[in-house]
Every structure is written in C-alpha cells, then in structure tokens.
Amino acid sequence: MKNAKDRPVRVVYSFPHKLGENRICHTAWQQVNGLAAAGAEVTVFPGVLHKPVASGVKVNATLAWRRFRIPYRLFGPIASCRLHDLIVSRRVRRLAGKVDIIHAWPLGARETLKTAAQLGIATVLERPNAHTQFAYEVVAKECEKLGIRMPRGHEHDFNANTLRIENEEYQLADCLLCPSDFVTRTFLEKGFPKEKLARHQYGFDEKTFFAGSQNTSAERGLTMIFVGGCAPRKGLHYALEAWLGSGAQEKGMFLIAGEFIPGYAEKLSAQLAHPSIKRLGHRRDVPELMRQSDILVLPSIEEGSALVTSEARGSGCVLLVSEGAGAICRHMENALVHRVGDVKKLTEHIVLLDRDRQFLARLRESSLSTVNEITWTAAGARLLDVYREVLRVKSQVSL
C-alpha cells in the first residue's frame, strides 16, 4: 500500500455551476484539467458538466443525471448552489478516508465545509474576486460618481444574502485561495490573518492565445484594446479619458470589445463618438483582435485576477493595467501599472508607448519571454503546491 507521501493528492473539487461554460465556469474547468495534468487525483462534483474534462478525472454532477438537468432558473442561482452544496456534503461523508482536500467555490460551500471540518478533511475556498463587501462598496461609490446604478440582480449590485453566505464560508474554510496580491490585500484589510490566505494564480490557453506579428513602428498609429464587460468596475471611463488626452487618438485606434450595462454607454456617449474609438460589442474573435493590437488596457477598480490580462500577454499585447486588475506582470519590466483611478498616470503611460516604440517592443519581448509561467498548466502545478502546503500546515496543527 502506498505511503500517503508517495501517492497523488486526492482532491474533491466542488463547483456549483456549469463546469466548462464561460467566465468562472471556464476558470474552474481549466483548474480541474490543470490539476489532473499536475498529477492530482481529482474527483469533481459540478452542478452540470458543460464540457468534457481531462481523462482520469472522475465526474459526478449534482444537478444533472444523464440528459436530465435541473434548470438553475427553476430555483434561482442561490438556491441551486445551496442544493448542490447539500448533495456534495452528503457525498463527502461517504468519501471519508478517501480524500485529502476539498476545493469549494462561493455560494455552494457552507455545508460541505462544515462536513469536511467534522471529518478532519482540509478545505480551500476559491476567491475569484476581491472580498465581496469591498467589491460592493467600491462599485457603489464608482457608480455614484458616474450617476448610474448597477442593474438589479447584477453580481455587483448589493445583495445582503450573498454577502452573509460568503462571510460564513470565509470563516469555515481552512484557507482562502487568492489569485492576486490585490485580492489578498482586500482580505487583509478586512482583518483576515495572512496564514488563512494562499496565493495561487489563473492562466491562459496558449493554443488559443498566441503572439501575432504586431508592428511597433512609430509610423503607424497605436492600437489599444479593451476586452470585458463594459461596466464602471472595469474602469473603461478612465481608459477613454486617458486615450483622448494622450494624443495617441490622432493616428491610433481604441477597440472596445464587450457589452455595456444599461446607462453606462449613455454617460460616455461624447467620448465614445470620437472617430478613433471603435465599439465592437461582444466578440468571438478576441484572440485575433489581440494579435492585431499593441496594448491591452484594463484600469479596473477591483477584480480577482482578470483572465484577459494573461490572454493578452500570450497574444503579444503589452499591458496597461491598474493595480486592481490583478494582472500577473511587473511594472516597467513587462507592463505598465498605475494606481486605481489615476488617469494622469495612465495617460502618461499611453503617451510613453505611443512615442517610444522601442520601449514598447522591449516590454512586449520581455512579456512574451515568460508567458510559459502563466499558462493554465503552470497554474495547475501551482495550485497543487498550495494544496500540499495547506495539508502540511493542517497535519502539524493536528499533532
């Protein structure tokens, strides 16, 4: 029989949504595959399996059986996540002694975390965004400054029930998985001990996002792209102000790929009307758009770790991001980073890259030289290392 130190880490991965769909569903899917590639023994309990996972991963959906699926809209998202959580907690009891660690996701974790604690199983809770109360507060302030409000039911429209559930989950988990230093900081500021926070990372698919032949010649205009939901938290209004104040708009082009929340485009209509700015709406050809662009701009006021930043690096774009974007990059080495809301500095960064194309080329070359460190494969290996550290600490505490 294998010694515990010699066998693979046995992981239960609990995800209450449609594993393999978009956004966090894509993130979770990539994590599962990355863990399997890194050598973990993974059992995944998704709400629904939307896309096949790597061979060797055991899958047992909670809200689907063969072709039958329980519609999330039937109960609503929170109740559906709770149902998933109850099912997983019962399955975990049957797995006592056969699992080392449980990886859970927000809103679908309370009962699972409680059961794991009773059985002495280590637990980690994914934090795909900043502390929820922090996110609500800064988004509300930004909307107030702009004179708009988030649509009712939007994930960043204040929801007391969501906040209560997530606060309970924070306390129950052994460790909170933070994908960026920014996320870690929001939890430290809320009084969480650093020992409860573990830094992992997200990644990008290098088969989809790979470098193009961007021409950094000063003879042509600069092409800057924004990709994501067009809402105040992403800071698009800051990007527009900086672009139009930089001089780059005279020969360059600013591409905006994403849908606007109601009222936001209307507030920005005068800026959006400038001939250098192209509203593209939701696009399926984002990798190609990135390969045609020099810069990705993302002046977010808060994020977890925006996947688009790593995807842009893989595509050969130089990052112009705020500290709140959670990007994996180094200021002045392979990107330019500004403080949240610092339009003056963002404008200076655009001016710098527009006027000094050799510097732009150096940043791009430096960024591309290390993109192998931010793939989903690398992220899976790092996540497995985090698991091992959590298990090591838990074993010492239990002695």
Topology overview:
Blueprint: E1 10-19, H1 24-38, E2 41-49, E3 58-59, E4 64-65, E5 68-69, H2 72-75, H3 77-94, E6 101-104, H4 110-119, E7 122-126, H5 132-146, H6 160-172, E8 175-178, H7 181-188, E9 197-199, E10 223-227, H8 236-244, E11 253-257, H9 264-267, H10 269-272, E12 277-279, H11 286-291, E13 295-298, H12 307-314, E14 318-322, E15 335-338, H13 343-355, H14 357-368, H15 376-398
Parallel strand pairs: 1-2, 1-6, 2-3, 6-7, 7-8, 8-9, 10-11, 10-13, 11-12, 13-14, 14-15
Antiparallel strand pairs: 4-5
In words, what does this structure look like?
The longest helix is centred in the C-terminal third of the chain and has 23 residues. This protein has 2 domains: about 220 residues, Rossmann fold; about 150 residues, Rossmann fold (3-Layer(aba) Sandwich). The model has no long low-confidence stretch (mean pLDDT about 95). The strands form 3 sheets. Strands 3-2-1-6-7-8-9 form a 7-stranded parallel beta sheet, sandwiched between helices. The chain has a 6-stranded parallel beta sheet with strand order 12-11-10-13-14-15, sandwiched between helices. It has a two-stranded antiparallel ribbon with strand order 4-5. It is built from 15 helices and 15 strands. The two termini are about 25 Å apart. The radius of gyration is 22 Å and the shape is globular. The chain is an alpha/beta fold.
